[in-house]
Amino acid sequence: MRITVVGLGKIGLPLAVQFARSGHAVLGADVNPGVVETVNAGKEPFPGEAHLDQYLGAVVAAGQLTATTDTAEAVSRSDAVVVVVPLFVDDEARPDFGWMDSATEDIARGLRAENHTLVVYETTLPVGTTRTRWRPRLEAGSGLAEGRDFDLVFSPERVLTGRVFQDLRRYPKLVGALSRQGAERAVQFYEQVLQFDERPDLERGNGVWDLGSAEAAEMAKLAETTYRDVNIGLANQFGRFAAAHGIDVYQVIEASNSQPYSHIHRPGIAVGGHCIPVYPRLYLWNDPEATVVRAAREANAGMPDYTVGLAAGALGGSLAGRKVAVLGASYRGGVKETAFSGVFGTVDALRAQGADVVVHDPMYSADELARFGWAAHAIGDPVDVVIVQADHAEYRDLGVESFPGVQVVVDGRHVLDERRFDGTRFLVVGRAEASVEHAAVPASRQAPS
Q1: For an engineered disulfide with 59, which of 20, 129, 180, 329 has Cβ 3.0 to 4.6 Å away?
Q2: Closest CA to 325 of 348, 356, 352
Q3: What angle do CA 184, 190, 196 make, to 5 degrees?
């Protein structure tokens, strides 16, 4: 097949590479000339995606993947088009379709009736968007009719950055079309471009799942991510209560989850990334009466303030004039990405208390941190307070000697070994303070959030 992938970001580029590695001719379209130039040189434009550099170099060298800034021209030569352009959401949960509208206009100009192109949107959307927004815009911009001249499908991406190729194999590919013909073509398309691991735990088996409608596929993605946000919100409320009453919530959660009907996530300083903090807002845009979803989102959004409050309380109620190191700019460990990271709320809350804030992240240089307006911290420099915001693997072996003069440590991700911080006030979000000699080493790490 001839395939165009529109949007060569952290999901779109690995997808384009996956399609090319499956034996198809792929055009990658992106509005950023720098990204296009880098991809055509066979180099990854962003770090951190497992195997991407190796795979990208191979498919570019073989002529199976070429990048371009001319989306319409690429679409005009394609049998299938996969759209992975970002959708943004403001603080009031209103989606900003600007970039996607622009991409859709370009796609429409490239559609040709003789190609009968399959157009698939993978960007997570509010329910109904594929049918009520993209179909009329594609038809108006092309002069063609959906179902007769082209087929339109929604198929949500379900992968995490850093492990896209692994996740493409691990999880069923969900599709929802506007017609039976579109559904059949979508199933055939993904069966040709993806390979799936065996999943004996799935009654339906792993592979491509047709959910019957675009709306069902749209809702499935919102449901799975909103569930995680609600679950983490519940865990955070459990954690705050437990800490206030001298209870170790991590033991409570482990005990609860030993029964097969309980799947409580872990509390933490923040919920970040492109997915979990954002998609519940898209769901709320469809369903503003979803009080459970709204309450969970508010609970999670309040965790940076709560965590800073723990640090202040441990120092008598004030952080004014104290030097505080925030460990982790990324929204989760091992990923160089700050989208909706808890670092922003944490730094803001610290500055509001008059603290002298510095930020450390092993994946960011001092210059990169400075562009966010943060002074960089070097491990080994003196500080009064340490707050762990991201669970980078590099932090697991840190100890009191890493932070001369530290008085208080607040572990927002349950990643540190408390026994290494003898002589400090050591707090873990969601757990009552314990003496170092009785502290347990974390048995597991918090799931990515």
Answers
A1: 20
A2: 356
A3: 125
